[in-house]
C-alpha cells in the first residue's frame, strides 16, 4: 500500500513538473482574469528639463489634430519632445507603443480604429487602458461662454471606471445563436474609483458626488458598485452624496444639468454620460479626457470619436485635442505653458468666436490653430 501511494505521488509530481506553462501574454491574462493589473513603474524619460511624451495619432482626424498640437507647442516653447508611434490595428505595433508609454510615463492619443469585427482582434484603445491599469477616466464638462449650446454655465466632472464593467471583453457563444457577455465589477476597483472621486471633490472644493448606476436591475454588479460608493462616502461627511439610475440621469442631464457636481460611474455609463454632456455644451470637438493609473497617464479627446468621415477636410475642431495637450502639460508640471495655451484657446473660441462648422461657424481647422498661435505670440506671459 505504501509503495502504491509513493508511486502515485511520484506520478503527480512528474505531471506538475511536465505540465506546459501558460502561453498567455500579460495582455491576454489581463482580459481573461478580470483582476487589477499590477504594473511597476520605470524611470521616466527626462532630458535636460524636457519631457519625452508618447504620441499616438490614431485614426480618422487624429493625425491632423496631432500636427496642430506639435505646431502650437513649437510656438509656445513647451519643453516636450514627442515620440510619434502609428499603431496599425492589424499588427503588433501596440507592443512598442506600450513600451514607449511605460518608458515615458505619459502619452497623448487620438482614437485608434479597430477596423475588424473578428473576435480575435481586440480594441487597441481598451487594450492600452487595461494593460497600463488606467483605471480612472475624467472628463471636465465646462461651458464655453462664446459657444451657443443647449445649456449654459455647466461645470461638472465625470469620473468613470475605465477598465472593467461591460468593457471587460469577456464574451462567448454558449449555444448557437446565444451570446453571453460578462459584466465585471470588482470591489477593489469600485473602491479605487469611489475614493478617487471623493478625494478629487475634497481637493477641488466640490460639494457633491453622485453615483450613477442601474442597481435596481443589476442588483449584484451595480449593487456592489453602489454599496461601495456609499461606504466610502461615510468617510467624507463634508461632501454630499446621492445616487441616480442611469436612464433618469440622462434625462436629468438634458433638463437640469446644474444639479450635478462630480459624477461617478462604471465604464459603459461613463461613455454614455460623457457624450450626452459634451452634446449639451457644444459637441465632441471641445472637451478633453484624462486617463490615470498609479504610474501612467494618457490624454485624449473626451468622447473618443475617430471622426473618419471628416478626416483630411480641414474642418475638424482642434480644440479637444489642444485641450488634452494642455491637461498633459499641467500633469507634467509645466503650468506656465499650460496657462499660456489655455488662455489662447479661450480667447479664440470665446472672444474672437473663430468656430468650426460643428459649432455653427465657417472657420477651417487651420484658422482656429493660427488664431491660437497668434494669441500665444502676442501674450505677455510667454515663458
Write down the oligomeric state.
single chain
Rg on CA atoms, Å? 23 Å
Q: Number of helix segments? A: 12
pLDDT under 50 segments (min length 5)?
Answer: 1-6, 11-24, 29-35
Ends distance = 85 Å
Globally, the shape reads globular
Mean pLDDT: 85
Textual characterization of the structure:
It is found in: Mitochondrion. InterPro entries: IsoCit/isopropylmalate_DH_CS, Isocitrate_DH_NAD, IsoPropMal-DH-like_dom. One of its GO terms (molecular function) is NAD binding. This protein is of the alpha/beta class. The chain has twelve helices and 13 strands. The strands form two sheets. Strands 1, 2, 3, 4, 5, 6, 9, 10, 11, 12 and 13 form an eleven-stranded mixed sheet that branches. The chain has a two-stranded antiparallel ribbon with strand order 7-8. Helix 3 links the parallel strand 2 and strand 3. The termini are far apart. 42% of the residues are buried. Mean pLDDT is 85; it is low at 1-6, 11-24 and 29-35.
Record keyword descriptors for this entry.
11-stranded mixed β-sheet, disordered N terminus, alpha/beta, globular, 383 residues, 20% strand
Q: Outline of this structure?
A:
The chain contains 12 helices and 13 strands. The protein has helices at 2-18, 26-32, 62-76, 93-104, 124-131, 187-203, 221-233, 246-255, 267-281, 319-332, 335-351, 365-378, and strands at 46-47, 50-56, 80-84, 106-109, 136-142, 155-161, 165-175, 178-184, 208-213, 240-245, 262-265, 288-292, 297-301.
List the helices and strands and how they pair.
Elements: H1 2-18, H2 26-32, E1 46-47, E2 50-56, H3 62-76, E3 80-84, H4 93-104, E4 106-109, H5 124-131, E5 136-142, E6 155-161, E7 165-175, E8 178-184, H6 187-203, E9 208-213, H7 221-233, E10 240-245, H8 246-255, E11 262-265, H9 267-281, E12 288-292, E13 297-301, H10 319-332, H11 335-351, H12 365-378
Parallel strand pairs: 2-3, 2-4, 4-13, 6-11, 9-10, 9-11
Antiparallel strand pairs: 1-2, 5-6, 5-12, 7-8, 12-13
Helix pairs in contact: 3-12, 6-7, 8-9, 10-11, 11-12
